[in-house]
Amino acid sequence: MASCERCKQRKAKCDRRLPACQRCEKAEVECEYGGRRKPGFPAGHRQMLEDKIEKLESELRAICNTPRTSTSTDQAPPQVTIEVETKSPNDQAIRSMPVGEASPTFERTRRVTERKPPTDLVVSLASLYFRHIHP
Question: Which DSSP helix (H) or strand (E) runs through 58?
Answer without folding.
Answer: helix 45-65
